[in-house]
Specification:
By secondary structure, this protein is of the alpha/beta class. It has 14 helices and 14 strands. Strands 3-4-5-10-11-12-13-14 form an eight-stranded parallel β-barrel, surrounded by four helices. It has a two-stranded antiparallel ribbon with strand order 1-2. The radius of gyration is 20 Å and the shape is globular. This is Alkene reductase.
Amino acid sequence: MKNTELKESLFQALEFGNFKVNNRIAMAPMTRSRTKEGDVPTEIMAKYYEQRSSAGLIITEGAPISIVGRGYSLTPGIYTQEQIEGWKPLTEAVHKKGGKIFIQLWHVGRRSHSSITGVTPLAPSAKKVADKVFGPLKEEGYGMIETEMPKAIRKEEIQSTIADFATAAKAAMEAGFDGVEIHGAHGYLIDQFLRLDSNVRTDEYGGSQENRMRILLEVVNAVVNEIGADKVSIRLSPFVSEGAGGVHDPEIVELTLKVLKELQKLNLAFVHFSENISDYKEVPESFRKEVREVYTNPIMVCGKYTKESGSEIIHKGYADMVAYGQPFITNPDLVTRFKNDFALTELHSESHSTFYGGGEEGFTDYPTYEEMKAEQN
């Protein structure tokens, strides 16, 4: 591949069955906590996503599939009719700009607190690690609070949770989404089931690798049966130990490869690997090669990629799309900037205060490159 072709790799269309995108640059899911009462999406959220519609695919911030699935205050849900109606103007705005958008379906498991949900968090096992989430402060307002001890989820609750994922996927279609991403990463519920330290169950959902991956496959199959495989993806993070108390699972890589062998049969839209964040290990090239031996369908990667490194991993054949997170916060026109080698607006340390909660500041007020030039002139 010539250098020019390498540079263009991010801007090529991708088609896999009925899953089609105009370019291979995705906007990664990022919690921004800007809903209104009832955890309903707002007008400024619609504006925020619309501004970034040039991405080949937008993946929304995590949307809890139920009350008990919540772990962060002010995050938009997908389990009430009011929430569904709140999403509709947002998906319509993205589609009017020619964009595509998947919603991320979220159950946080033990990474929560009853002050957020009103109920005790559920997890594979009643095990807590030091962890903080965004919730109501005792004094007033919102901030980072320590999670609390979860209770072990019962088998009947596992089945209702699987049903909740399927129901949320159906609701996403009603809301106008092009598809869904199941959150199976970052120490949330599905990831908790995968890992030895957080799953010490002795029933069919614990113990062996096959048992620990059971809920993941049951959730994926339930969602596929509800809306079709071409509208379904899943996020995994085998080299990230976020929410795991610093414990790196010795079996997670082997287990992930087994999961991929099963997912290969389903022809999902894509599998999304989250990398290089929080407590992580570098992803070795040997893993990428092993993945491609068992999984030949579309792969998305995310985690501090640049335009150059994103192009390179696509060129090597290890990925088909690259998702960008924080660069999309400050650069709503990230695709245009990449395409034309325009300078990026960098994220400054003070910007972190606007990540969660608030209004338009640090959310919809970042200008495009052309707007910046116009202001300078």
